[in-house]
Design goal:
alpha+beta, 3 helices, globular, Alpha-D-Glucose-1,6-Bisphosphate, Chain A, domain 4, 146 residues, single chain
């Protein structure tokens, strides 16, 4: 019998941003700012809070990501479940973890989306493309904060 953790893979993207940790944290945890760089949402940085990320529906997907906040360590770590559609068909369930580490010139932002099964290569590739775009948007949003 296999263990799901051993049969899954993670997508990790790291990017140094030349912004204070506090500004990046705000953009990761304030709903209106999350909407600017990611998706419309009803996020609250409270462990156990269930929220949705929403976009335009498309073929085989209603445009909704069901999430639950798992970890909130201010200015350091944030994680939430990321559930798309019905896992029995083309859907998938993963966990997104943000880790912020102060650097001399700003902050190292590490995004890890873990839990992709071996049969979810298309989802993994799509996430890789999407998160690169979203992190670029995050950097721009944070750059515009006062």
């Amino acid at each position: 019998m296999s263990t799901p953790a051993l049969d899954s893979r993670s997508l990790i993207i790291e990017r140094e941003m030349l912004h204070p940790v506090g500004k990046v944290w705000r953009a990761l945890t304030q709903g209106p700012l999350i909407e600017e760089w990611l998706l419309a949402n009803d996020f609250k940085p409270i462990v156990g809070h269930r929220f949705n990320l929403r976009t335009t529906p498309m073929a085989h997907w209603n445009g909704v990501v069901d999430c639950e906040v798992l970890t909130v360590e201010p200015h350091t770590k944030l994680s939430y479940s990321w559930n798309v559609g019905d896992e029995a068909t083309t859907g998938f369930k993963t966990v997104v973890t943000w880790t912020l580490t102060a650097t001399k010139s700003g902050v190292l932002v590490r995004m890890e989306q873990s839990g992709f099964r071996p049969d979810q290569e298309a989802n993994y590739r799509g996430a890789s493309y999407g998160w690169q775009k979203f992190l670029g948007n995050l950097d721009k949003v944070v750059g515009g904060l006062a």
